[in-house]
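This part of the workshop introduces the protein records we will be handling. Getting from the letters to the tokens is the skill we practise here. An example says more than a description, so a record of this kind follows:
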Amino acid sequence: MALPIRLGTGAAVVATGAIALISTAMQDDHPISDPLTALAIYAALWWLGIVRPAVWLSPGELVVRNPLRTHRIARDNVVSARARSRGVAIIRRDGRRCTAVGLWKPRIAQERAASLITNWAQTPPSSNQGEAPESSYPETQESPTRRRVVDILAAAGLAVALTIPALLLAWPHNPQWLWAVAGLIVVIAIVPFGITRQAKDALRRDH
């Protein structure tokens, strides 16, 4: 997953947890431990579904880290890769199945990641030093500082957009117009994230 998604959803989980605990503590008929189970589930889903899945290429092996298991596949055991509905399927010579859940992306991104893995597997190690599928798309040169700022803004926007509904639910007595204002804030907050993803997708399609 992209860095803004990891940071934004992580911040949203933390903020939502704080809101839930404060809201519960303000109620006399509910112990503060009530939301802990749900918070633990959200944190586990965030870690297993967003943070942990990843894929690396090295000169000698392909590492696929899925939510519950890590696969280390020797280069000579990789035949090719194909885009699938749940990620990118790695075709191995020994016939064993492996799907890279960390590459669960829009179809065009999956196909290009699969193409990179296939080219890596079919290219002699001496002429390919290994690249990460996450950075497999030709991109224009961008200042690291600018990229960091854009990622932070996108993550902050996503975090705000995901946290506002929890805030409104924790404050049950509110005027109806507040939901419309909150919806507008969500749209404004998520714009940096949307612009970031749109720009990257457009760049990938152009190449």
